[in-house]
Amino acid sequence: MFYRHLQSSIEALLFASGQPLPAVKLGEILNIDIDHVHSLIAEMSDAMNAEERGLIIVEVAGGYQLCTKPSLINVVSKLAEVQDSKLSAAAMETLAIVAFKQPVTKQEIEAIRGVKADRAVTTLLDRMLIKEVGRKEAIGRPILYGTTNEFLQCFGLKSLSDLPDIASLLPDIGTAEKTTEDTPS
Questions:
Q1: Can you tell me the distance from the alpha carbon of 149 to that of 155, in angstroms, rounded to the nearest whole number?
Q2: Which helix (H) or strand (E) holds 13?
Q3: Which residue segment(s) compose the domain that 160 sits in?
Q4: Residue 59 in contact with residue 48, Cβ under 8 Å?
Q5: Which of 62, 74, 85, 150 could join 128 in a cystine, given CB atoms 3.0 to 4.6 angstroms apart?
Q6: In angstroms, what is the C-alpha Rg of the chain?
Q7: If DSSP codes are grouped into helix, strand and coil, which group holds residue 56?
Q8: Is 38 within 8 Å of 1 (Cβ atoms)?
Q9: Are residues 104 and 162 in the same domain?
Q10: pLDDT tops 50 at residue 150
Q11: C-alpha span between 37 and 156 (Å, rounded)
Q12: What is the per-residue pLDDT for 177?
């Protein structure tokens, strides 16, 4: 490929950024067409996967990012000795509501969950998994919340369209009702 000499530049940019870089941005920096960026990254990814290397290029949150190969998690975790900072069940429920219903107000979240969501929303804002995306055209103009690129990164999603279909996650209510009706008392 004519632009192969730019692969080292792409690798350096992805490493220095630490965040996903969109192909458009890479193309602008390197002054090449976006199709060439995609081709170069595909070629680089194939080479990195084929060799015994510790890094891979992943497409996440609308861009490309250098990441450690998943098979090396045990080695990397020894270096980091990261404190496990899991989200509470309430925060995970709230995050799921925001992800699937966005933009959504705190009042709408509370109506779905049936309990106050102040603490969960604050936690998600602090961890930059959700953000304020505007105000609803309603009395009091409540804040609307949506997910962030950090959310996409954290869950390894390219975009929100990678979320599963919510209907596939719910039990078939019609089947459950028929089963209870058909059971003799």
A1: 10
A2: helix 7-17
A3: 89-170
A4: no
A5: 150
A6: 22
A7: strand
A8: no
A9: yes
A10: yes
A11: 21
A12: 46
Per-residue confidence (pLDDT) for residue 172, from 0 to 100: 60
Whether residue 104 contacts residue 97, with contact meaning beta carbons closer than 8 Å, is answered with: yes
Residue 172 burial (10 A CB sphere; 0-12, 13-18, 19+): exposed
Nearest 10 degrees: CA dihedral of 170, 172, 173, 175? -160
Measured CA to CA, the distance from residue 181 to residue 174 in angstroms comes to: 11
Q: How far is CA 57 from CA 16, 171, 182, in A?
A: 14, 36, 53
pLDDT over 70 at 174, yes or no: no
Give the tokens for residue 23: 């192909």
Number of domains in the chain: 2
pLDDT of residue 31: 93
Tens digits of residue pLDDT in 30-69: 999 999 999 999 999 998 887 788 899 999 988 999 998 8
Residue with tokens 């599963």: 164
